[in-house]
Amino acid sequence: MDSRNPSTAADTARMQAWLAAMPDNTSVADFVPGPSIERLDLTFDIAALRDSVHRALGVSDYQGEGFHALPLTRRPGETTASANDLSGRFYLRPGDTYEEVAREEIVDESAFSEFVPEFADTYFEHVHRELTARFPIGRMRVLMKEPFTCNSWHRDPEPRLHIPIHTNPGSLFIVNHHCTHLPADGSVYFTDTRGYHTALNGGDAPRVRLSRSLAWRRASGRHASQRRMTMPFRLSDDQIVAYNADGFLIVRKLFDDEETGLLRRTMEEDPAIAEHSLIRPDQEGFGTKSAL
Ligand SMILES: [Fe+2]
User: The pTM is what?
Assistant: First the structure.
């Protein structure tokens, strides 16, 4: 007997119990709510959703390499979606160190406030209106997953709403330790994709679902703009004294990483800011960029 395992009698007894009971092979085709995966009361017409997919693919196509996303919302007037817009920031632990890394850039979900005009008058527009009336807005996309494929095991900055449109019992959604099938019957599912998750299609037909990001931010449970409105930053007496003495004040961690990322992106990409930017070279050849 292996000296590391002097007695495995308990394993033998448990094995007998395991083998005596057959696994449940029926309910796995159903939805089972659990931590971070819930079904809403709200429902939509599944036939109309399928018709909308058919009509939308008549005028446009999925975008993104290995991702297959059809954006239904956009920043007002912006006609093309960047690769980053299609995926957005996500976090994963890709290697055997188990270290978490960030990929792609933060997307400001609330900026995607315009329904893409090409899909006006489809049932998707009705869905967009109904969801926007109830929940914080975010990107709305049709996502297709090819047979026998899965997403990375990752987490997102925001939760998602999902409306399965074409699916099969082998299409599963997993958040942390909970795994379930989401039937395509017009139901709307909340998935807390702030937890680690993946979606896989183990069936032999494409799975199509409508995905709606919720414009949520970590620090307070509200979107950042709402947080600033409802939780104003106030200087302490010591900070006021320091400002009066020095003429400046440094406040560390005033913005979280996501907010800083949005500010950086705005500074880099907003043409109105670029027009008024100056770059002052320093002695080492680097530049300091200022916007006035
Ligand atoms: Fe995700």
Answer: 0.73
